[in-house]
Amino acid sequence: MTSENLWRAALHDFNNLMAGLQGVLDLTDPQAPLDGRNRLRLESVLIDGKLLVAMARALALGQVPESSLVPREDWQTGLTERLRPMCNLFRCPVELVDLGPEGSPWPAPLLLDWAAAFTRQILPWSAPGPLRLELEATPEAWTLTWVGDAPLPAALQPEPTPDAPMNLPSCWLRAMREPLGLTLEETPRGLRARVSRPGPL
């Protein structure tokens, strides 16, 4: 992406971030502490802000974290922790379903971050949910399937239209597909991401 596009995307998203913080303040009694709902909203906005900074830095500097295999349970726990604030915000739980095989390791952190960022893009379409996310490891690939009828975001289409929304998460998701070796497609069961394995289990 060009520097101009990156600046446009960054300004667009940070404007939304500031609007989110303002929204929490507007809905809070200035004479009282934050209630549970607004505290969750504030936590989610701040987490989004940190992720946006990391995405902008990665895109601007071309930084791609090195990946290594981690135990399946650790990978799923990491994804659950990343998804918890956004699930609370949208009131849409995500159900992780492991299709096996048991004990198969998964690559982290890039695929983990990619899965969380992509889920954030389609979660509003899936509310009130739950959104079922199926994980499957085979000797050939790691596959994630977001079951349901959520559409593929316009910016992530194989050939996005000129008017497709330009934001940092979409740009980052597109940019990280190549280092991951990830393919993304719409299937009759839902959206599916596939990462080819470099070797056998």
Q: What does this molecule look like?
A:
The protein has 5 helices and 7 strands; from the N terminus they run ααβαββαββαββ. By secondary structure, the chain is α+β, with helices and mostly antiparallel strands. The radius of gyration is 17 Å and the shape is globular. The model has no long low-confidence stretch (mean pLDDT 86). It has helices at residues 3-26, 36-61, 72-90, 110-126, 168-180, and strands at 68-70, 94-98, 106-108, 131-137, 141-147, 182-187, 190-196.
**First-residue to last-residue Cα separation:** 35 Å
Structural class by SSE content? alpha+beta
**Approximate strand percentage:** 15-25%
Give helix % range: 40-55%
Global shape = globular
Count up the helices. 5
Radius of gyration: 17 Å
**Major sheet attributes:** 5 strands, mixed
Number of domains: 2
Find the CATH topology of the largest domain.
Answer: Heat Shock Protein 90
Mean pLDDT, nearest integer? 86
Query: How are strands sequenced across the largest beta sheet?
Result: 2-4-5-7-6
Provide the low-confidence segments as ranges: none
H/E topology pattern: HHEHEEHEEHEE
Q: What is the architecture of the largest domain at the second tier of CATH?
A: 2-Layer Sandwich
CATH class of the largest domain: Alpha Beta
**Which oligomerization state do the chains in this entry correspond to?**
single chain
Q: Helices and strands in order, then pairings?
A:
Elements: H1 3-26, H2 36-61, E1 68-70, H3 72-90, E2 94-98, E3 106-108, H4 110-126, E4 131-137, E5 141-147, H5 168-180, E6 182-187, E7 190-196
Parallel strand pairs: 2-4
Antiparallel strand pairs: 1-3, 4-5, 5-7, 6-7
Helix pairs in contact: 1-2, 2-3, 2-5, 3-4, 4-5
